[in-house]
Design brief:
By secondary structure, the protein is α+β, with helices and mostly antiparallel strands. Helices cover 35% and strands 9% of the residues. The chain is built from 12 helices and 4 strands; from the N terminus they run αααααααββαααααββ. The N terminus and C terminus are likely disordered. It binds protoporphyrin IX containing FE and 2-acetamido-2-deoxy-beta-D-glucopyranose (NAG) (6 copies). The site of one 2-acetamido-2-deoxy-beta-D-glucopyranose (NAG) has 3 residues, from loops.
């Protein structure tokens, strides 16, 4: 009779992981995730990708967009994971690998240099890369798509394995590489279509895919969109590919150079079955992408333990200090700071009082 409540307490204690302030990793990442505008948003990084077409590292006429660069950076960091060996994945090793031919383009140094000021003893570069995907997919969608976000990634101190698929890579090598990273054929097709709904293939960097005719005064890097809504995270890339409309799946499907049609080889590798499935609806496409992208972001070395999913904290102390003072009122304790209250659900423009 007396045992019962004790057992219940033990069970409850084990099945709920309640947020307890302070938790420095959680507090920092939650701050970057939630305080994007308004109160306490001084360092928010969403401005770099607002609007979604914005390029934060240079001239808007270059034909580049930061939100898409962030997503591609995460893919290149993830792609060399070896889940059986427990190595690679989201560990920011991409920072040591930017001079490799498989990592052509300005996306990686652009992104990492923008993230660098946010990295501190609690927030790793690898967590910033993951958070940037959550943020870019959120900003480039309406209603906002929210990929669940965990923290705790650990940065590599040296370069990792080679093997990011390139436009020239044959289909079997590509599928083998993704399989090593834990993604089977439908997963690979899905994840690639989810990535290639944003952004461009550029003549600068990929002249073998996109010809010089893409270069114009407003698009000096010669970026060609994957789909007709370059800045919307939507199923259109799939539909345009299947229907042969708009961008028809983009340059990696349509390039005159057959050798570099990597998306065409991938999408047709199961006779378009996965692409036809994804075309079912925007809602289905988004739900598949959320799941695949969360798996990509959570592919980490076996030595890394990720935190619980970071959800907005409804009532959160901000910059709380407890000071001992001695002045004309005599010795006393001063408790100062703010309490942040989320007044609306996070996905509906959370505001603070
Ligand atoms: C077989 C696999 C893949 C190949 C061969 C491939 C190749 C490429 C190439 C050549 C570009 C053009 C980059 C540039 O010109 O700046 C590109 C862009 C891009 N890729 Fe992939 N990709 C693959 C899979 C993925 C995956 C799985 C994702 C993310 C989940 C992804 C996300 C992106 C994004 C967002 C862009 C646009 C970048 C920008 O506009 O700056 N890709 N990809
Ligand atoms: C909390 O402290 C940080 C670091 O000093 C500062 O940047 C931020 O503006 C403070 N927030 C508020 C609401 O005062
Ligand atoms: C951006 O580049 C265009 C030409 O491509 C140039 O006319 C313009 O002055 C540049 N803007 C800035 C802010 O550098
Ligand atoms: C990226 O930056 C690093 C460090 O500054 C540098 O060593 C590397 O060459 C750069 N990579 C590219 C492609 O510019
Ligand atoms: C087609 O792409 C391959 C692989 O990048 C390259 O070697 C070849 O020169 C390209 N052909 C043309 C006509 O650009
Ligand atoms: C897959 O769809 C593309 C685009 O409609 C088409 O060109 C191709 O022939 C199809 N391939 C297969 C094997 O179904
Ligand atoms: C969220 O904010 C945007 C931009 O200010 C606005 O267009 C939209 O209607 C808001 N959504 C809600 C649910 O208030």
């Amino acid at each position: 009779m007396i045992l019962l409540p004790i057992i219940l307490i033990l069970l409850t204690g084990q099945s709920h992981s309640t947020y307890v302030w302070p938790n420095y990793l959680y507090d920092e990442l939650e701050h970057l995730l939630v305080d994007q505008e308004g109160f306490n948003s001084g360092a928010y990084f969403k401005r770099a990708i607002t609007p979604c077409t914005h390029y934060v590292n240079g001239n808007q006429t270059l034909g580049r967009m930061t939100a898409a660069q962030w997503l591609r950076t995460a893919f290149h960091d993830f792609a060399t994971a070896d889940v059986a060996a427990g190595t690679g994945g989201m560990d920011a090793s991409i920072g040591w690998e930017t001079d490799r031919p498989e990592n052509v383009g300005s996306a990686f140094n652009d992104s990492l240099s923008f993230f660098a000021p946010f990295v501190n003893q609690y927030v790793s570069m690898a967590d910033m890369i993951a958070l940037s995907v959550v943020t870019s997919v959120g900003v480039c969608s309406s209603p906002n798509i929210h990929i669940p976000f965990r923290g705790g990634r650990v940065d590599a101190s040296e370069a990792g394995a080679f093997g990011v698929p390139e436009p020239e890579t044959d289909i079997q090598t590509t599928l083998n590489q993704f399989a090593q990273a834990g993604f089977n054929q439908p997963d690979t097709i899905g994840l690639t279509a989810c990535g290639h709904t944003l952004g461009n293939v550029h003549h600068a960097g990929f002249p073998q895919v996109v010809g010089p005719e893409a270069v114009t005064p407003d698009n000096t890097g010669g970026g060609i969109h994957f789909d007709s809504t370059v800045d919307v995270f939507d199923v259109l890339v799939v539909n345009e590919y299947l229907e042969g409309t708009g961008q028809r799946g983009g340059p990696l499907v349509t390039s005159d150079n057959v050798t570099v049609r990597s998306d065409f080889r991938l999408y047709t590798s199961d006779n378009n079955l996965t692409m036809k499935g994804l075309s079912n609806s925007q809602e289905y496409f988004v739900s598949e992408c959320i799941s695949l992208m969360a798996r990509m972001l959570n592919t980490v070395p076996s030595s890394t333990t990720l935190s619980a999913v970071i959800d907005p904290v409804d009532v959160k102390p901000v910059n709380i200090t407890l000071d001992f003072m001695e002045d004309e009122y005599g010795p006393h304790i001063v408790f100062a700071g703010y309490i942040r209250l989320l007044s609306t659900a996070f996905t509906e423009n959370a505001t603070v009082k």
